Amino acid sequence: xxxxxxxxxxxxxxxxxxxxxxxxxxxxxxxxxxxxxxxxxxxxxxxxxxxxxxxxxxxxxxxxxxxxxxxxxxxxxxxxxxxxxxxxxxxxxxxxxxxxxxxxxxxxxxxxxxxxxxxxxxxxxxxxxxxxxxxxxxxxxxxxxxxxxxxxxxxxxxxxxxxxxxxxxxxxxxxxxxxxxxxxxxxxxxxxxxxxxxxxxxxxxxxxxxxxxxxxxxxxxxxxxxxxxxxxxxxxxxxxxxxxxxxxxxxxxxxxxxxxxxxxxxxxxxxxxxxxxxxxxxxxxxxxxxxxxxxxxxxxxxxxxxxxxxxxxxxxxxxxxxxxxxxxxxxxxxxxxxxxxxxxxxxxxxxxxxxxxxxxxxxxxxxxxxxxxxxxxxxxxxxxxxxxxxxxxxxxxxxxxxxxxxxxxxxxxxxxxxxxxxxxxxxxxxxxxxxxxxxxxxxxxxxxxxxxxxxxxxxxxxxxxxxxxxxxxxxxxxxxxxxxxxxxxxxxxxxx
Length: 496
Description:
By secondary structure, this protein is α/β, with parallel strands linked by helices. Helix content is 32%, strand content 22%. It contains 16 helices and 21 strands. The chain has helices spanning 47-65, 107-114, 123-126, 135-145, 149-154, 163-171, 184-187, 202-208, 244-251, 310-318, 329-334, 373-394, 413-423, 435-448, 454-458, 473-490, and strands at 3-9, 13-20, 25-32, 44-45, 72-79, 85-88, 98-99, 158-161, 181-183, 217-219, 222-227, 237-243, 260-264, 268-275, 286-291, 299-306, 343-345, 363-365, 403-407, 427-430, 463-467. A seven-stranded mixed beta sheet has the order 15-16-14-13-19-20-21. A six-stranded mixed beta sheet has the order 3-2-1-5-12-11, sandwiched between helices. A hairpin with a 7-residue loop joins strand 15 (286-291) and strand 16 (299-306). Helix 9 crosses helix 14 and helix 10 (310-318) packs antiparallel against helix 12. It is globular. The termini are far apart.
């Protein structure tokens, strides 16, 4: 039986997952990497550390599965998306720490570009509002911050990539012939690609001052890009690339227009498949490429991006010391009947969809002497559910009948029940919640013939649990009204 190896390069860790032909995860290797916060609002990663940890998790996954390169039909890559790496073509060394998607240092650049045309200046071309979230302004910042970098980039001595490109280039040889490419889903998150052309747009390169020689080739999400050059996977084709949220949509078998999913990872991301035509939102959602399989037409999605979800639980653990491990959140939250009036709005890097307010900052409201750490835990869980309701409201035209969910927080039954309650529709958890890795494996497997097509993949999806709403409409609206008041208190804090 052929197996696939999915590399899931996330915001907080790198993972390798071995997936069998039945869509089951048979082994996992995982290592966390450092989160660097050199200044308020700045978030960085060490790209060299990410590459080292990726090599190690490949070894771990293969060892635990008892498999070798001969057993692996292909490698698929999925990744944190907008995070920006610039490196030396000759040496393979990054010239600056990777700037993470959560980073807000480029807000002045974004504000300057918005003077002409507002935040929607390029939305018709890219599907994206002007925001520090995306890669283009991060590239320009690095080129300006590192002495001589802009000139070197124009001479073709430097390369840019999101972390999928960084891994692909290193896997396929690095300085010795590495493939410098990305797929349409990741390219659509740079704010440099045209949604319809699926190509780098000169107007955008000029506006953001990004030299074209720096950029990778844009390719489909499912094709053979090259072969692993060395290590335990030497000779295995790399055949699938999808940004993490698009990979989760694909892994949920949401292939048709109107089908959707929400992934609870570091952030939370609702995607609704809109078919072969890009649909532009007037309600704060962004338009993105869902996938492209080989030479077939691209498919598009509307996305509601929430910056802080699982990372709020990490914040309770690492910054406040309220819990010592993430698994403690659910029992702690269950030890109280409600949030005790406490609401947490985790606008640590501003608010993303549907607000797009970079001036927002995190607030905790409703505090009394009655509040305990258990109320904080419950408020943190509920904050993710409330934010999801906001982006679902913005996607109202999609007429979503149920929400398929995945990611780390999808293992929390208490959270999913509350999510169903505040949405007023069923929430469905699949048997395999590792849908991000599954999507990357599916894309790679399709490219090399492990699976015959989308119908076969659809047959692999299985339901694990369904959470029906129990909360009455009046209570739901009362809870939502309080949440909206809390959000209002978070706005405007960063104006100074």
